Amino acid sequence: MTDARVLTGGCVCGQLTFKAQGAPRRVGLCHCMNCRKTSGSAFNAFAVFPADQVVVSGESRAWKTDYFCPQCGSQVFCREDAHEIELKLGAFDQTNLFTPTYEAWTKRREFWLCTPDLISYPENRGEVTS
Q1: How many whole angstroms separate alpha carbon 130 and alpha carbon 118?
Q2: Burial class (CB in 10 A: 0-12, 13-18, 19+), 103
Q3: If one looks up domain 6-114 in CATH, what number appears?
């Protein structure tokens, strides 16, 4: 790891953590059924880093290429190959670190994700912003 910028993250219980150094290669969204089902959301948001820029600590379990904490069940990362690691944007300790530049599997994308007039809830429902 050579870049001075170190980003941290991990699971909700804190047992499985990571440190990522430098900038990601790419940041995207995926709407495929695997990402939808494993995340429990309408899509998966991720930042892809070179594997040698990321250090993972703690115990993890895998289902196919998705890795999660065996204690709390939080998904933290994905390993498609030995050269890259896909870190879930929601697993970072900070918010607003990255903006996706692309999305995959748009044929599975929810139609409402491209609707510009959505009501926005910054936290809980009832706190509406325009």
Answers
A1: 8
A2: middle
A3: 2.170.150.70
Looking at the whole model, is its pTM more than 0.90?
A: no
Domain ranges of the chain: 6-114
Torsion of CA 38, 41, 43, 47, to 10 degrees: -70
**Single-letter code of the amino acid located at 43:** F
> Of the candidates 101, 90, 91, 95, which has an alpha carbon nearest to the alpha carbon of residue 27?
101
Q: Which pLDDT tens digits describe the chain residue by residue (130 residues)?
A: 445 689 999 999 999 999 999 999 999 989 999 999 999 999 999 999 999 999 999 999 999 999 999 999 999 999 989 999 999 999 999 999 998 888 888 888 898 887 566 444 456 555 444 4
Q: What angle do CA 1, 17, 24 make, to 5 degrees?
A: 45
Residue 17, φ and ψ in degrees, nearest 5: -130, 165
Could you list the beta-strand ranges (E) of 22-78: 26-30, 44-50, 54-57, 61-63, 66-68, 75-78
H/E segment holding residue 35: helix 33-39
